[in-house]
Amino acid sequence: MSAGRARPTVLAVLLAGGAGGRMGPLTAEKAKPALPFAGSYHLIDVPLSNLVHSGITDVWVIEQFQPHYLNEHVANGRPWDLDRTHGGLRLLPPFQGDDGEGFAQGNADALYRQAELIRELDPDLVLTLSADHLYRLDYRDVVDTHLAAGADLTMVTTQLSGDVSRFSVVQTEDGRVTDFAYKPDEPASRLVGTEVFLYDADALLDTLAMLLERDGKLEDYGDALVPHLVEHGTVVEHRLETYWRDVGTIESYWEAHQELLRGTGFDVADAAWPIYTAQPQTRPAFIAADASVSNSLVSPGAEIHGMVIDSVIGPRVNVAAGATVRASVLMDGVRVAEDATVTKALVDIDTRIGAGAEVGVGASEDHTLSSDGDGDADITVLGDHYEVRARRTIQAGAQFPVADRAD
């Protein structure tokens, strides 16, 4: 840290470039951070709000895959008070590197491609974040942990139940990370990394340059970057004891909404730490006299004439008379026609479900998943702008990609 600075300068880098392959049709034409959550929010709102509450105002978003929806949502950063003359929100679009070998091949590679810009800004610390996790965290506490340990890297960790093999699994001793396994087949513990990493800026950039020269490539942080720092540097943990959930799969995304409705999940309405977003400019929701809505969230602009149970209804959704929506998430602009039924489904923006159609036939009555967020294959997924013709039957667990428009 440079002399005379009371607090270190922090650059936050949101890694928003992944293709989101585990989300099926939902991310075929949009980046995963742009996915709606809880009706009126988007996944990227969570880390952006955490940053604002933590007083971190130099925020870069590294994009790559299908950034259009994401750009439209974050705009100039105004909802998060990041529309500033100096600092603020900066969108870094995809580009080919000097070697001409195409886009970044992982998040470590994506970071290195911004090395020149990072050195130009000259922060003391670089905070890297993913945008598909639900949690509240004051990043200033992570900075304090980092400074107290004199660390090269501080990673935020949390204990999870169930299968943790799709996460980074760590072992610690007196707060120091002693072992790091990237998506191991046989996890040695249930302590996982949350993909919140705080690096000493010089240690990060020097290590990336060394690894590239040594290996000829950089991929994800778990392939070489973090393992090298664990072995050769000082890596410590900052333990997160409150709610955290990765929503990077169909099952976990659906279950996070059900947790929200049960009151056991991520609280978007916490007045002490609100989640900011760019709200649609539309009228309040309309619930007709003949409608029935129970244990559900209904967003502005929605119009409900039918029955909605245990569901999240996005902006401008229309559920017609005689229609039933159960244990589902309907995103912006979905239309459910008369006498149609939608059960245990994720329905993307502007999809049309015809009169008398049945979506999710045979789905289980249990509105929960196994403890690891996997193991339940009966969630139906319809991509954006999909059209289900009248009286069509779609079995539980089916997925229809955006490219498949034909019925």
Q: What is the level-2 CATH architecture name of the largest domain? A: Alpha-Beta Complex
Rounded to the nearest angstrom, the radius of gyration is 22 Å
Global mean pLDDT: 88
CATH class of the largest domain: Alpha Beta
Number of domains: 2
CATH topology of the largest domain: Spore Coat Polysaccharide Biosynthesis Protein SpsA, Chain A
Estimated helix fraction: 10-25%
CATH superfamily of the largest domain: Spore Coat Polysaccharide Biosynthesis Protein SpsA, Chain A
Q: Which structural class fits the helix and strand makeup?
A: alpha/beta
Strand percentage lies at 25-35%
- Given the structure, what is the number of helices? 8
Given as residue ranges, the uncertain stretches (5+ residues, pLDDT < 50) are 370-375, 402-407
Biggest beta sheet attributes: 9 strands, mixed
Label the overall shape. elongated
* Overall strand count: 31
Terminal Cα span:
61 Å
